[in-house]
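Support request, please re-run this one:
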Amino acid sequence: MYRKLTELVAKEQHVCLKVIEFIGFVGCSADRELLQYLLKTAISLNKLTLDTSFGYFDGKLMQWDNPKHTQAARSRGKQLETILPPGVELVSNMEEAAKTARESLDLAFHISNILDTGLDRHTLSVLIALCDLGLNPEALAAVVKELQREPSPLPPPPTAPSSLP
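Re-run finished. Output below.
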């Protein structure tokens, strides 16, 4: 017989559960019920990540085709902030992805500086994006080396003569 999770009383607290990553959160009543139960029993919880880019259909996890579905699920997830215990961070999958990308770029930039490549953060970001699109990293490296070897083709702009005597 089906009983709502909210009707169940936890016999034990989940002391070791510090991070929950809910993949396929759509914000339906079953999703909210499960999270309410976990938030009550996971007394050491620090972080709750909601991945709203996927949903379950016929028992299969599928990526949303329509961004409106993702936005609606994210909006329903934001409503959970009112029931979060103190000290628990609510993170959406988009925020987590952006944070991971920033950390990865910071690490790549640090390595670039150690290797004295002369690449600035923006150029490095563009190169990483090109690699993500499938460009050959070795070919990109060859182009960068070639560009760094060539002297700048543009002379400095001439200074205007002063009209003061």
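The radius of gyration is 25 Å. Helices lie at 29-41, 67-78, 93-114, 121-132, 137-149.
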